[in-house]
Write a structure and sequence with these properties.
By secondary structure, this protein is an alpha/beta fold. It is 33% helix and 24% strand. The protein has helices at 56-60, 68-82, 92-95, 98-109, 114-120, 131-139, 152-156, 180-188, and strands at residues 4-13, 16-24, 33-38, 47-53, 85-89, 144-148, 164-169. It starts with a strand and ends in a 12-residue tail after the last helix.
Amino acid sequence: MALRNQVEAQLPTDWGIFKIMAYSEDADDWMPHIVLVHEKTDFKKPVAVRLHSECLTGDIFHSLKCECGKQLHMAMDYFKNNGGILIYLRQEGRNIGIINKLKAYKLQEEGKDTVEANVALGLAPDGRSFDDAITILEDLGVKSIVLLTNNPEKMKAFEDSNVVLVDCVPIEIESTKENEGYLRTKKDFFKHLLNLDTVE
């Protein structure tokens, strides 16, 4: 079965009106990828895009262990002013799922970093794929993008695709004592483009 748009509707938000869509292979899938297209989006120009992997703890409960929720809101602020597309990928915890993510949290409390915790659970440091996001952008008719990211793997995902990566916009959140270790691992292990000179 192929990934496809199962349904779409209008979604008024604090950041303006979006078209909201659910992409999955199965119309009965309870966990489809969610796509928001801002009303100001101009498909004739490079489209601002945020590929955001689901983070229940950060996005919903505003966990201080990560900066995911703040990155999401920064992207939405950007779309409010510039238009753009949010692709909300159901890849909780770098695609290990919420239960394993909480197990990893427990290991982090014992001194492991995020990579060490995943490996200790027999999981990949980062098991995500961005292929579905590219399929979605192609389905929407997007030809070129400006990617809101600090992650070089997201940039690399577009190298052999039909969607041209024109530019990147950093979406960096100032580190805090709660998330500095998490961000340090992002920078040192995953090579995210981060400046961690200052901690709140």
